[in-house]
Amino acid sequence: MTNTELEKSTEIKNSQIEHTREIPVEINHEIECPRCYAMMSLCSDFDSLFYSCEECSFILYTIKKNNLP
Ligand SMILES: [Zn+2]
After folding, report:
1. In this structure, how many other beta carbons lie within 10 angstroms of the beta carbon of residue 7?
2. Which of 9, 19, 40, 52 is packed most tightly, with the most Cβ within 10 A?
3. What region does 55 belong to: left with phi over 0, alpha with psi -120 to 50, or beta?
4. Residue 24 Cα, ligand 1 centroid: separation in angstroms?
5. Coil, strand, or helix at residue 42?
6. Beta strands in the chain (DSSP E)
7. What is the pLDDT of residues 43-57, one digit of tens each?
8. Whole-angstrom distance between the N-terminal and C-terminal Cα of the chain?
9. Residues 6+ away with beta carbon under 8 Å from 56
10. Per-residue pLDDT reduced to its tens digit, 1-57
11. What Cα–Cα distance (Å) separates residue 16 from each residue in 27, 36, 44, 51, 56?
12. 3-class state of residue 67 by DSSP
């Protein structure tokens, strides 16, 4: 991984709110955690979208971008 790519990945992790603009409308930005019922925030990784619970660290994956045609 080059320095440029490393900077880019850090940038994405630090701007998750801005990154949610790319998410389709039908995906809720926040859902209730099935484990502790706190609100889970929608996060995105390089190849997937997932909900992350800050209360219990539960991760719920929604879409694998690699599976898109
Ligand atoms: Zn939770």
Report:
1. 10
2. 40
3. alpha
4. 24
5. strand
6. 30-32, 39-44, 48-53, 59-64
7. 888 888 899 999 999
8. 26
9. 33, 35, 36, 38
10. 666 666 665 555 555 555 555 555 566 788 999 999 999 999 888 888 899 999 999
11. 15, 23, 7, 12, 19
12. helix
Pairing verdict, β 48-53 and 39-44: antiparallel
**CA 59–ligand 1 middle distance (angstroms):** 8
CA of 22 to the centre of ligand 1 (A): 25
**0.85 exceeded by pTM:** no
Sign of the Cα pseudo-torsion (11, 19, 22, 52, in order) = positive
